[in-house]
Amino acid sequence: MAQKRSFYSPTRPPTLAMTELVKMTLDHHHTADLITKWLEHPNDIYLDWFYSRREQKYDRDQRQMLLWNKGDFLLENIFCRTVDTGRLIPLRTWTTHVYCHCSIHDRKRTMMRVVFTMLPELMLLRAMHDRGCDEIFIIVTDLQRQEMDEVTEYFKLVCRHAFGSCKPGMEKRIQLEHMRITHAMHRQRRTPCFPQIDLALRAILYEKRPRFVILFSPPPTSYSQILFTHHSYVPDEEIFFEYPSGCPNPCCTDNCEMLRFPRRGLETAHVLEIKRGGKFGKRVKQKTMCNWIECDVCFSEETLPKSTSGSSEGTESSENGTDPSVQRVVPGQLCSQCRLVRYCSLDHQRRDWPEHKKVCAKMQWE
């Protein structure tokens, strides 16, 4: 029996097998090499910002933290509290999947330059997640800022109304907006074309369930957009308010073309309101777990509120039919010095100590 062929539609779930974009992958070793080169000659603006984090005071119950209490400016000495499990984990490497037009691949342009351009931002975004962020997805385009903003608003519309079933009136609106952006980009000879960008991005959302996806425009545009898939994944404004924009211009403003990081939290971040649960995958759940990385003991599980815009997006829970508003609490042993992490047993605290001692110190709370 002949297999049913998939076809592309702005309102139907696509697959990555349908995309014509070329995928280039940089594994953990390539990422580690890039980080080593960056640490050898770090930008003074970023280095000053990391040093300023050593003086920052936190609330003990603050969900997001970036701590550098001891040692030199190295990955293993900078710790981040993860938003999904509440652990204090040092900055780590990841695998990057870069989707680009075939012309870039044919010219044999390396994608390491793309990753290196956003390396500090990627290190921090990776560190914010304990699970589900081992792979980062980047789609390379040549969009100008205004075009990028229009594309971003389109994806917000599609994810809000067409991530699953779509009403006929909304389907027509999405198709008209899709045609408008497609023709506008075609007149400007943008590569890849908008249908390929749309197909690749939505396929990644459906199949990979990433914490965020990045639309990146290389020089001379040098502008990128980070599309988060849940409001809890957005960096906290209290920590990243003074984060460098990446622009070499000392008079840079928030409207700078190179501004990439949502330094103002949810105010400037772009969040895609994706349906979750059931056939749309697991819901997001905020947990507090034993700090020993190989332990699965969970001390608390709480339901996150829906996104501020009132979407149907929920929180991450297992699909076992339980009430998502129930919070489970299991007692744990708090670290007596820093009082930031919990352990399920003294044995796991001993096992985690070689790593935790790099950040463990008596804290001055607000």
UniProtKB/TrEMBL annotation:
Segments crossing the lipid bilayer? none
- List every stretch annotated Disordered: 304-328
Q: The MYND-type domain covers which part of the protein?
A: 295-360
Q: Where is the composition biased (Low complexity)?
A: 307-322
Q: Does the keyword NADP apply?
A: no
Any single GO molecular-function term of the entry would be: zinc ion binding
The cross-references to SUPFAM superfamilies, in alphabetical order and at most eight, read: HIT/MYND zinc finger-like (SSF144232)
What's in the keyword line of the UniProt record? Answer: Metal-binding, Zinc, Zinc-finger
One Pfam family, please name it.
Answer: zf-MYND
PROSITE patterns with a match to the protein in the record? ZF_MYND_2 (PS50865)
Keyword Zinc carried by entry: yes
Q: What is this protein identified as?
A: MYND-type domain-containing protein
Q: Which organism is it from?
A: Lentinula guzmanii
